[in-house]
# Entry
Amino acid sequence: MPIRVLFDTGVFIHSEFAEFAVNEIPVRWVGMESVAKVHGLRRKQPHADKDYQSQIDALFTVGRMIREGRVEAYTYNEIRFERFNGRPELQEFNALQGCSFRRCDPPLDRSLFLKTSNFKDFFAKGGKKDRGSGLSLGDANQIAFFDWLCTLDKASVGALIKHSTLIGLSDFEINSLRNIEWFQLVCNRSGTSENYPDVFHLWTAERHHLDAFLTLEKKLPRLVDRVRNEKTVKIAVSTDVLWPLDLLQRLGVCAPDPVPIDEDRFYDFYRH
# Structure
C-alpha cells in the first residue's frame, strides 16, 4: 500500500530548482563585435543551511516515489491558492515533474462563509508579509477566516449546522464543524495566527485520514510534538508531519537520487 501524503506549499515552491536567466555571449559578424543574449535557465541559489538544502534536494527522490506509486500524493484548494503567483509553474528541472496529485476537500470551504469581489484578498494568506507589502486585506483571506473559525463556540457551531442546507455544507463539512475543537485547540497552542494556515493544512490531512503531511517548515513538526506530549488536554494527532528525508526513510530509501541540475551552469532552451 502506498503512503498517502498531503504536500505543503513550500514543497511545491522548492521543487522548482531552475529559474529563468540570460547569458550574454560575444558575437563577431562581418568584422564587427557585439553581444548576443541567450535565454535559458540556471539553478536557483542553494540555501545557506546545507542540512535544509539536503531536504530540498531529496524532493527529486520524493517525485520518483510518486511516479513509481509508492507515494499517493494529495493537494487541495487552500494550498493551490497559496501557490498562485500569476505565472505558470516552471517544469524544466522540477522535482515533481510528471507526478499525479489527487485533490481532497478542505474541512470547510472558505468561499461558502466569506463572499468577496476582492480576489487579491481571497488569494492572500493575510499575514505579516501581505500587510507589509501594503496589500488591502479584508475578511476573506486565509488567516481572517481561520481567526473566525477559532471564535466559534458550541452555540455558533450548532447554528451553522442547523442552517447547513442554506449555506451549502456537505456532510463532510458538517462533520468538520463537529470536529472543529481539534482545529481550535491546535491553533491555540501554535502561538500566533501566522501559523493557522499550517494547522488548517494538517487538519485537512487529519480529516481525510492521510498518513503524512510533507513540509519544509520547521515550526509545525515542533508544534505537533508539543501537542502530542501535552498532559493537561489530550489532542490526538494521527497524521505525521514529515520532512522529505523523513518520508524517504519511512519508505526505506537511504540514499537520495542525485540532483540533475548543476550549480553555476547555464542551460539554454535548445542545448542542454
Q: What stands out?
A: Residues 108-178 form one domain.
